[in-house]
Amino acid sequence: MYSSIVSLSTTLDNVCIDPEIIQSLKDIVSLPLLHPAIFKIGILARESIGGVLLYGPPGTGKTMVCRALARECGARMLQVRPSDVMDEWLGNSEKLARNVFNLAHRLAPCVIFFDEIDSLFRSRTSGDSGHHTARNIAMDGLQSAQKNRDGGIVVVGATNRPFDLDEAVLRRLPARFQVKLPDEAGRKAILQVHLEGEAFPEVQLDDLARKTDGYSGSDLKNLCVCAATEAAKESVMNATTDGTGRPELPTRVISPKHFEHALTQVSRSTRPSPELDRWQKSFSRRPSVEENVHGSKKIKYTGM
C-alpha cells in the first residue's frame, strides 16, 4: 500500500482559486464531516451527493484546496495515484484498491483524493483483466456514496483530462468543478502568497501579474523560487567578512532584475484547452450564485 497520508499544512488562506468553488466544496466536503448529525434525518439520511471531480490544467490548486479543506474540518487526507493501486502482479491491484477504502475507514474522518483519476477510471479500451478488476473494486468504493458519507469518508478526484473518464465514473462524481488557470488578479494573489516573508520593495506585483498571463499557480511558485535564488546568489557574491573571517551576508532583497531573469528561465507549462471548455459546457455541475431577499448569497446547484 503506497498511497500517502498527506501532511496538512495548507490553509484556505494559501489557496487562490474561485471563491465560489471553495464555498461549494465546503458545502459538499466539510459540512458532512463537521456536522454529521445534520445528515441523519430526512432526504439527507437517504441520499448523498456522492463524490467530487475537480478538473483543469495541472498546477491550478486542485490538490491544495483538498488539503486545506481536510485540515479545516479536522480530517485526514489519503492521496492516491494510479501507480498506488496498479500492480503488475496478478491479484495485487485488487488488494491495493480494497486497502485504499479500508484504510480510509480506519482513518475517518478522511478525504480520499484520487490524483490523475482518468488513468484509473478511463473509458474501457484495454483487455487487462487485472486493471479492470482493481478498477471495479475502486468503482464499488465510489458507488457506496451513502456508506462513505455515514463513515466520514469523502471521495474527490482530480484530472486534467475529464473527457477520458468512463461515464459510469462521472455518474458517481456528480459535483464537478473546473479549476481554471488564474486570471490577472488571481496571479497577483498567488505571487503575494509565495513572496510572504521576502523583501521585494521595488517589485511591482501588478506589472508582474500582467507579464505572467497563462502561468499556473505552480509556474508562479517556480518563478518566485527562481527570482529568490538569484537574489540569494547576489547576496553571497556581495558578502563581506567579519573579524573572524566568517562571511557576513547582506539581507536578501528580490529586485525587478531578479524577476526579469526568472521570466527567461520559467515559462508557462500549460495552455488553455478548448477541449476542456467544451467538456465543461456539457458535463460540469458548476454552482450558480443567487442573492436571496435579504441580500446574502446562496449556492444553487444545477443539473445534479
UniProtKB/TrEMBL annotation:
Protein's UniProt keywords contain Nucleotide-binding: yes
Single annotated GO MF: ATP hydrolysis activity
Domain of life: Eukaryota
GO cellular component, one term: mitochondrial outer membrane
Keywords from the UniProt entry: ATP-binding, Hydrolase, Membrane, Mitochondrion, Mitochondrion outer membrane, Nucleotide-binding
UniProt topology in membrane: Single-pass membrane protein
Disordered: annotated segments: 267-304
Localization annotation: Mitochondrion outer membrane
UniProt KW Transport keyword: no
The AAA+ ATPase domain, residue ranges: 48-183
Feature: compositional bias, Basic residues: 295-304
Similarity remark: Belongs to the AAA ATPase family.
Protein name: P-loop containing nucleoside triphosphate hydrolase protein
Source organism phylogeny: Eukaryota, Fungi, Dikarya, Basidiomycota, Agaricomycotina
